[in-house]
């Protein structure tokens, strides 16, 4: 569907607005891209399940009028796995933050990648714990200042794309909130993919990350995403290999977990019965 036909009211729980995100937060752009992708695909509200954990980004599930669950910190993926196994026909989407997905939820993340269950994981990476006080996350990176690292983070950051690839995810992509239309199209491809899809979206947090790291307000942080990222294979990488690549890094056709489980477990048990 075209943008002129897009009606956000079909997809939101208006009684929970205005939202709780700080001015300049990138998560609203991610939510918009997600809803536009769902609208493009022509999915009905009852065809979709949105499961989230805890954090600023995870509030998305409460704002959307789908089959939703707001679960415990780090436990969105096991809950979503149960939803998908119970009803494989649902399009299950998990929007969560960098800490929720790769710190307390890191073990669940790598095993969801390994299983290749048909879930779309959208990781909103603002490199900080926004809701709980600005602690550093596994995605913060060396030198970043946070409430738990006032002199700079000593740890190296995960590369989420490489982590997802190494763990076996069959669709892996990265984009930013500056590239909103690109984010919409990437999420659309991820939902259409049959298997575990990971979409990392670089999203700014002016309140916790921006202030502590003198990164400016939201416009300056958005400008950084424009300047510091390039499409995969860009010639600019030859001049500056530190630029962050955007695009679809993995798109493989591998047997999906629910289908394998049906064939290898359920059908065999039913025959014995």
From TrEMBL:
Key words, A-Z: Oxidoreductase
A Pfam family reported for this protein in Swiss-Prot or TrEMBL: TPP_enzyme_C
Keyword Transmembrane appears in the UniProt entry: no
UniProt entry tagged with the keyword Oxidoreductase: yes
Protein name: 2-oxoacid:ferredoxin oxidoreductase, beta subunit
GO BP, sorted A to Z: cellular respiration; small molecule metabolic process
Domain Thiamine pyrophosphate enzyme TPP-binding span(s) in chain numbering: 54-201
Gene3D superfamilies in the cross-refs: 3.40.50.970
GO molecular function: oxidoreductase activity, acting on the aldehyde or oxo group of donors, iron-sulfur protein as acceptor; thiamine pyrophosphate binding
Record-linked InterPro entries: 2-oxoacid:Fd_oxidoreductase (IPR051457), THDP-binding (IPR029061), TPP_enzyme_TPP-bd (IPR011766)
């Amino acid at each position: 569907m075209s943008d002129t036909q897009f009606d956000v009211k079909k997809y939101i729980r208006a009684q929970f607005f205005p939202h709780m995100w700080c001015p300049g937060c990138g998560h609203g752009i991610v939510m918009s891209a997600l809803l536009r992708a769902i609208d493009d695909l022509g999915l009905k509200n009852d065809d979709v399940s949105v499961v989230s954990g805890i954090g600023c980004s995870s509030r998305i599930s409460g704002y959307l009028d789908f089959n939703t669950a707001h679960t415990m910190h780090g436990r969105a993926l096991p809950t979503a796995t149960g939803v998908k196994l119970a009803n494989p026909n649902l399009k299950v989407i998990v929007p969560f933050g960098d800490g929720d997905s790769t710190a307390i939820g890191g073990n669940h993340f790598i095993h969801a990648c390994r299983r290749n269950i048909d879930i779309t994981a959208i990781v909103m990476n603002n490199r900080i714990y926004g809701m709980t006080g600005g602690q550093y996350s596994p995605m913060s990176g060396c030198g970043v200042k946070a409430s738990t690292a006032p002199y700079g983070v000593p740890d190296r950051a995960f590369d989420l794309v490489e982590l997802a690839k190494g763990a076996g995810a069959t669709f892996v992509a990265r984009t930013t909130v500056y590239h909103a239309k690109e984010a919409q199209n990437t999420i659309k491809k991820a939902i259409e993919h049959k298997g575990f899809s990971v979409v990392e979206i670089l999203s700014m947090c002016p309140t916790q990350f921006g202030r502590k790291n003198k990164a400016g307000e939201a416009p300056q942080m958005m400008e950084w995403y424009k300047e510091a990222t390039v499409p995969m294979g860009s010639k600019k990488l030859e001049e500056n290999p530190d630029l962050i690549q955007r695009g679809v890094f993995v798109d493989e056709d591998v047997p999906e977990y629910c289908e394998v489980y049906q064939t290898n477990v359920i059908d065999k048990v039913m025959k014995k019965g």
